[in-house]
Specification:
- By secondary structure, this protein is mainly alpha-helical.
- The protein folds into two domains: 54 residues, Homeodomain-like (Arc Repressor Mutant, subunit A, Orthogonal Bundle), CATH 1.10.10.60; 131 residues, Orthogonal Bundle (Tetracycline Repressor, domain 2), CATH 1.10.357.
- It contains nine helices and no strands.
- α1 packs across α4, α5 packs across α9 and α7 crosses α8.
Length: 189
């Protein structure tokens, strides 16, 4: 049993070293310009250790960002009062502003966006009463709003947060309300 625990710890250490190495390399290089060889050399582990844990460099970033973003959304979905959920998500985006800018600059933003979009499906599933809507309306509205919310916050972040976060929240809430109202009206006609 001790050998198993030891080997699991070695595997976890290798993962941590690889994550740290890639994040350090991303401070100065674009993701597309980084190789597995560079990452394993910087991490001080073998290529075998890399492939035992990950298939691609993207997988390293997913393993780093997904638990962080998932846990933030879990808090917002399950522990923040309904009327404060949008503000809580905005606060989270504000906290990761530097990370987002680096992701945009170093060409790995798509990883964060995909994780965000997956979480928005869960967020809207719990935040909205879908009884009035068809499955098609629900699915496409969530995709539409998810992309829109991300695009608004992204624009706000990369343009140095010129508007107040409250103004951004009001804008997003207005978009949500008006598009939901349009769907309800569509169903009646």
């Amino acid at each position: 049993m001790a050998a198993t625990e030891h080997s699991q710890q070695i595997k976890q250490d290798s993962k941590d070293y690889l994550i740290t190495a890639l994040l350090q390399l991303l401070q100065t290089k674009n993701l597309n310009d980084i190789t597995v060889t560079q990452v394993v050399k910087k991490a001080g582990v073998s290529r075998m250790a890399f492939y035992r844990n990950f298939q691609t460099l993207d997988d390293i970033l997913i393993s780093y960002f997904k638990p962080k973003i998932d846990s933030e959304f879990e808090l917002v979905i399950n522990r923040v009062p309904q009327d404060q959920k949008l503000n809580a998500l905005g606060d989270f985006f504000n906290e990761i502003a530097k990370t987002m800018k680096l992701a945009v600059d170093k060409n790995y933003e798509f990883i964060i966006q995909n994780i965000f979009n997956d979480n928005m499906v869960n967020f809207y599933d719990t935040a909205i009463d879908w009884k009035k809507f068809s499955e098609i309306q629900k699915r496409y509205w969530i995709k539409f709003m998810s992309a829109g919310v991300y695009a608004i916050w992204r624009e706000w972040l990369i343009n140095d947060q010129k508007e107040s976060l409250n103004d951004i929240h009001i804008l997003i809430a207005d978009f949500q309300t008006s598009t939901l109202r349009a769907l309800v009206n569509e169903k009646r006609n």
